[in-house]
Write a structure and sequence with these properties.
MreD_proteobac, cell inner membrane, Cell_shape_determining_MreD, mainly alpha, cell shape, Rod shape-determining protein MreD
Length: 161
């Protein structure tokens, strides 16, 4: 029996990712904060490409820029690049086991950091500290639990993977 898809799963997960990004962390843990929005967007791009695409990534990125007070368009650009790469390789990535998906997501998050660092260089912003590069590792480690949680939210229950 096929379970119905929850129409509220997508907006609630994006809102939760925005709130997790705003959650204050101790200074020691702040560099380990995963890019929650990228993880959530990656899930939706892989699982429901008919609902989520480049336009959605751009819109969520602009909302994120406004929410976090960052340079307008920075996160939008980063998320659109990630969405484009995910759309391009979705057919392969979708059928990887979660451990291999986590490695691919880690690579995408590292690519996101490279884009952010490049923007800082181009705009003459302060150089990023070495801890800046730890976040993709955290995101990679959290991919499986995030994927399973969002899958349960979307499908209305747990499924084997």
């Amino acid at each position: 029996m096929m379970r119905g898809h929850s129409p509220w799963a997508l907006p609630l997960s994006v809102l939760a990712a925005l709130l997790l990004g705003l959650l204050p962390l101790p200074e020691l843990l702040a560099p380990l904060r995963p890019y929650w929005l990228a993880l959530v967007l990656a899930y939706w791009l892989i699982e429901t490409p008919d609902r989520v695409g480049l336009g959605f990534a751009f819109t969520v990125g602009l909302i994120s820029d406004l929410t976090f007070g960052s340079l307008l368009g920075e996160q939008a650009l980063r998320l659109v690049v990630m969405a484009f790469i995910l759309q391009r390789f979705r057919a392969r990535l979708r059928f990887f086991p979660l451990s291999q998906q986590a490695l691919a997501i880690g690579g995408l998050l590292l690519n996101d950091r490279i884009i952010a660092a490049g923007l800082h260089v181009v705009l003459g912003a302060p150089t990023l500290r070495i801890e800046f590069w730890l976040s993709p590792l955290t995101g990679m480690l959290l991919w499986a639990p995030v994927f399973l949680l969002l899958d349960a939210l979307r499908l209305g229950g747990w499924r084997g993977r």
